[in-house]
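Morning F.,

Quick status update on the modeling queue. The single chain you submitted on Monday has been processed. Sequence for confirmation:
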Amino acid sequence: MSDSYGVVGHPVAHSWSPFIHGLFARETGQSMTYRLYDFTPEELEPRVREFFAQGGRGLNITVPHKIATVDIAAELTTRAAHAGAVNTLALQKDGTLLGDNTDGAGLVRDLCDNLGL
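Structure tokens below.
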């Protein structure tokens, strides 16, 4: 059985995330699925909770849902709390959802490592 992941946004059909994560899974020998989930703001919370109730392991969150997802997470990392936004939801061993935000760290790493700034 493969682990289930995805990206949530509205719209989200343009995302390359399933392709990118599929390549990553093949390269690392992981058995996983990664799908696009186009949820309207009104259906965000119930659909996210349904995803995890059905065995989902994690979601990436994109526009327009990053701020609203703060209220879905049971716990926030320091950087998500500081940003007031979540771009990653992960199911914890105790069944709760951890919200994180990797946007700032990713930008800083790219600027430093790839552009030498």
